[in-house]
Prior knowledge:
Blueprint: H1 13-17, H2 29-33, E1 49-55, E2 61-67, H3 69-73, E3 77-82, H4 83-86, E4 93-95, E5 101-103, E6 109-110, E7 116-122, H5 125-132, E8 136-141, H6 148-151, E9 168-169, E10 172-173, E11 179-186, H7 188-197, E12 200-211, E13 220-226, E14 231-236, H8 241-252, E15 259-262, H9 278-290, E16 294-297, H10 300-306, E17 310-321, E18 327-337, E19 366-374, H11 391-409, H12 413-420, E20 429-430, E21 436-437, H13 442-453, H14 455-467, E22 471-480, E23 492-493, E24 496-497, E25 500-506, E26 512-516, H15 525-537, E27 544-547, H16 565-592, E28 599-602, E29 605-608, E30 615-617, H17 618-624, E31 638-643, E32 652-661, E33 668-678, H18 685-704, E34 709-710, E35 716-717, E36 736-739, H19 757-772, H20 788-798
Parallel strand pairs: 1-16, 14-15, 18-19, 26-27, 33-36
Antiparallel strand pairs: 1-7, 2-6, 2-8, 3-7, 4-5, 9-10, 11-19, 12-17, 13-14, 13-16, 17-18, 20-21, 22-32, 23-24, 25-26, 25-31, 28-29, 29-30, 32-33, 34-35
Helix pairs in contact: 11-19, 13-14, 15-16, 16-17, 18-19
Amino acid sequence: MTDQTSNTGQAPAEDRVQGIGCARKRKEDPRFIQGKGNYVDDVKLPGMLHLDVVRSPYAHARIKSIDKSAALALPGVYAVLTAEDLKPLNLHWMPTLAGDVQAVLADEKVHFQMQEVAVVVARDRYIAADATELVQVEYEELPAVVDPHAALEPDAPVLREDLAGKTAGAHGARTHHNHIFTWDVGEKDATDRAFDNAPVTVKEQLFYPRVHPCPLETCGCVASFDKVREHLTVYITSQAPHVVRTVVSMLSGIPESKVRIISPDIGGGFGNKVGVYPGYVCAIVASIVLGRPVKWIEDRIENLSTTAFARDYHMAGELAADETGRIKALRVNVIADHGAFDACADPSKFPAGLFHICTGSYDIPVAYARVDGVYTNKAPGGVAYRCSFRVTEAVYLIERMIDVLAQKLGMDKAEIRLRNFIKREQFPYQSALGWEYDSGDYETALKKVLDAVDYPALRKEQEDKRARGELMGIGICTFTEIVGAGPTRNCDILGVGMFDSAEIRVHPTGSAIARMGTITQGQGHQTTYAQIIASELGIPSDEIQIEEGDTDTAPYGLGTYGSRSTPVGGAATAMAARKIKAKARKIAAHLLEVAEDDLDWDTDRFKVKGVPGQEKTMKEIAWAAYNDLPEGMEPGLESVDYYDPPNFTYPFGAYLCVVDIDKYTGETSIRRFYALDDCGTRINPMIIEGQIHGGLTEGFAVAMGQQLVFDESGNISGNTLMDYFVPTMVETPHWETDYTVTPSPHHPIGAKGVAESPHVGSIPCFSNAIVDAFAHLGVTHMTMPHSAFNVWRQIHELGLDARDAA
């Protein structure tokens, strides 16, 4: 047995440091598994009041009158606020992150079911809830529009009367009273010519249903305004606390230096907690007016019904190819349902997010994509549910279309991908829609998966089963994601560039604290950031404290979403640590009385080249930084870095799914799911594994069951956990995971990000497997979710469920 200890009896320095590549346990888990987490609803302040919301039963209606007298008469009620009460403060409307405006409380008209109409502030949440029932609102119901295609009809009702006469919005001309924007990218004329000249073309209508991130913790806040100090503190479920601070200052007029936003532990975000919701604004207003802390915590129905949804994209995808299956062009047209207000959390320059990654992993010479945003009588949103902005929709489109093309050509679905991949030697690769892919090796990844599952044997088994009338499907997805928003030349929110930040301070005794501009929601930041610093500075990761989420102490950052923590926050961490290391090198040279160039770095110390034993550890250097410095050097060992990435990062993966379908019930059994991810440098393999399992499970949920459904009157259904599919360990399949490593050439440590890739890649993989089970019968597409009933309907339409006569 090999002795893993050094001659001093200690473990090797690499093991003590537990840096990049170490599969160490998460530092934050002990307090969570002991119930010691600190969430917004755990915050209890002296004199705290509670807020509840009066919501509209109609999707589209005019407000004739609001009578709040009975609610105000209820003992324990302190205030009832309506839009009329907010108008003197100019807070009845608020700006959205997408350049639109949104009603804080409905002003004369409601635009979606369960829209906020009034709020009640009371001694406790039970009195507040009772009082909401006493607020009498008289409505005049109006025709509702929930289909975005119908919303663009010439005679469609005008939904946003506040925009009457406005022929232009934040993103250009509006061509209809319910139209928000038209955004396009690519070479339309060249793409049209490629289609005209192509011997093979395919087209498919793809609807990506409206779904909801449904984090375990709903949204909420506690607002506390100190009238003496004129200082506002807000505890809030936010994925972007600094952005919230800026927005709150802009809305309230309170100087940003007097606004403190604290995001404590967050029970999942998945994009749902990026924006600013009316409940936040009303709680802040109530605290300012009443001089008391005010708490607002939404319930599950409110969360599913009114906070930011995802997807709801109606896509027409087209591919042009030659007879051998080489793709010549991609053409995409999208109608995007944005709901009642354009409140998408996308970079300002890209109203359709990063949808133009839709050329995927394929070397497509020319492409064109157009997206039209539309208002409907549904809740606003359009967030990146465990993905970078609209990337899930883009990947779904190209991966479904690749399968459609393969079916038309009679080609194997793995072979057509291998034939069209961007080759490893083509990187950095300029896509037809303007992105520069940093690195990739798609062929190696897919072949590794195909070998692992014995792909030829699976196809042979499928052939045999089809001969017996059984339904077996094999789905493949080879995706590329674009993450790490982002370069400020591409990405901003409200004009603030999407850089991120890290501040590191090494104490005299050699431990360290780092404060970040990101905010964890379960990703393991306290562990992975510490590991990055540990590798850079040689300080054991257990001795590095990570703090996030308090705008009074953390440097300004744009938060955590779009898989940007490692690509941007992690890069800032590494760069800040390198600034410290550069100073530490100078101190070490001074202590050892040599030139800086005479020193080598070894894990946790500087050594004099060629002189064994002449060395200084980081712990020794830290002590010297406060008492024994070179002439003219200021004391201390700390730094801050604001990192503006030169490019996005492009993680990728190759997934394969095998399903068996019961042709009498439509029940689908996920027999096997093999997921290979390439996230560049792997910081903590254990955390990566956990993130991949989580993303795959959410992808399973979306593909197989999740959907927010509306009837013609705009009534939402499926907005409780009795109806909305959140899989448990009982339903969740077994996951097989694998990886390749293709570092990003521009990232300081080569990392790309991973937490959202399994969600992005798994959804089309499930869909491709389901459709593949019916492909031999001429089926080219089936709309999600692939619930047993929906799958059975396809079976029944094909007459496959007929039983033999006894």
